[in-house]
Write a structure and sequence with these properties.
heterodimer; A: about 190 residues; alpha/beta; 6-stranded mixed sheet; two-stranded antiparallel ribbon; 8 strands; globular; disordered C terminus; B: about 500 residues; alpha+beta
Amino acid sequence: MRRRLFKNLTHAPVTEPAPDLTGDRMTSVGMELQGVIERTLGRSLAIREVDSGSCNACELEIHALNNAFYDIERFGIRFVASPRHADVLLVTGPVTCNMRTALERTYAAVPAPKWVIAVGDCAAGCGVFSGSYACVGSVAAVLPVDLVVSGCPPTPLALMQGLLMLLRAPADVTPPDAHAPQSSLSTTGPGR
Amino acid sequence: MFKALFGELAIIDAHHGCARVTVDSAIWRGIGEALREGKIDLLSEWADDRILHCALYEAKTRQACVASLPITAGKAPSLAVFHPPAIRLERAITDLFGISLVGLPDSRPWLDHGNWPVQAPLGGGGLPFTAPRPYTFLDAVGPSLHQIPVGPVHAGIIEPGHFRFTASGETVVRLEERLGYVHRGVEKLLNGAPVEEAARIVGRASGDSTVAYSLAFARAVELAFDFAPSSRAVWLRAIMAELERLANHLGDIGAICNDAAFSMMHAECGILRELTLRACDQAFGHRLMMDRIVPGGVRADPTRAGVDALLSLLRALRERFPELIELYVNTASLQDRTVGTGVVSESLASEFAAGGYVGRASGRAFDVREALPYPPYDVLPIQVALRKEGDVDARVWVRILEIQHSVAWLDAALHSLPSGDVLTPLIPRHSASEATTLVEGFRGDLLCHVRVSGHGPIERCHLRDPSWFQWPLLEAAIDGNIVADFPLCNKSFNCSYAGHDL
């Protein structure tokens, strides 16, 4: 273990620079929403993730946000265990009939002001599961959705961009060279 | 054994992948008795239009077969009376088809929580909705017992399901799972779906096993259509399957150690997992390789640069993974948590025919890649990892060994990758046809049964995730352990909620 720790001390960190938030991809997202969150919460965001019927691919990529490459916590964004501690619900999957009540209760348990982000194509528009007897539909069919990060699943980079959008990015962000062709961002309504 | 059970019954011509026979209720009961005596393993049980199927495996002769019982007047005898591992499968059949399985020991619903607009959605008529029956958990009675309800929304970035613990102080006396929260109606959506659309749905049955699911489905459809994919496609598929195994095992080992409060392993394994996903993205154009395997071949053909990215990933793993194994072995605080925790006995693993690391950590030496090898494992065999202890540590070790075996296998495969086309259009047989296949996903053996009509669309597709036979063992593994060790045990199983609930 000592050898490993020493190596980590002498090597540069693998953590990558923050993604670019100034490009075209971001203009579609409401600046109003961003302003509201910034005024209310400063630069910290507590997230409660809820799988309302996902295939778990979105969960894998949300998990990746915490790995050393993306290290989302350096931006003040952290995942919390209880909805009572959360500012944001990050919802994945189509909403199944069997998860509807649990999702509504989780939302009710989040103190206001609160925001909902729908992650992935299923959460955005029910995906391949639309029309099923067992699904209510997209997240917007059950909760007011503020931001959609689409993709199947969205890449960690797209997720990071979506989350950082909610906080104003530091002015000195370095543009990345990576891009995320399987994902995109859009708001579905104004902030409340 | 199959000969003794089925005698000279005619094998159905239209079924491919393994033999299928039609049996009567006397033979059906004979199957139940053979299962009870442990002579054969249950691979799955599912219903179709007025037929009840079960898939069986005999370890001694390494043979699989499907037995089918016609259902008369909506009733059929239960297999679960003889063989408890069939209980949840039969509860699900009752929920989805409205069939009454006579003698089923547990009559509570399983997937149907009373929230769907219809009852028995896959049964012919689609019964109208009636008010849900209240769900009662099994009793645990005794002095100073208390219950801890957990879920469906858990305190982490994980899938939903409900756990009902009954504890005496810190010790778990009983755990009962209630699943079905992520039931999305996958099998109903597949009925009548064109092959391409069905492949996209199957690829989203369980996202962490998207390659394995797509592979099982593609193989079943191709067997039914009597179609052989190109040899490059066959190799690329297995390469993707092994990469998926690597990524998941790396993630799991890190997460298990994290649940034992050793976050350094989590961070280090997370780096290797991310490197794996990035290499997959470079080679196949998607980090999880979703929708890359389709009936007819594969949709992504890696360039030279893509193959090089995979080779340099293997070099990185070979260089960096041994240090992590050493770290795992030499950290006493970690070993203290994993060794002897959450033991699954050999007898339970064999009774439930548990696949993957759950079975192989408890002495059940079954791996589809070796037992019923499909190409290219028939040409390039893979070593099977096996431990007998059955604890969290053994399940970690099976994963460690499988990472090493997969790295060695991938190295050989990438160096002997044939050239040629990777995708050929499928041509329907013009007669109804069906197939059953088994594929080894990272979690264990995954069964796919497909029935196609003459002109193409899927008429019925049944998917059985390895988790079906692993979830019940988690209830057994936690018995007598402390509540605080549940996350550790649960992570060492890492069962799929989505794949189970469908």
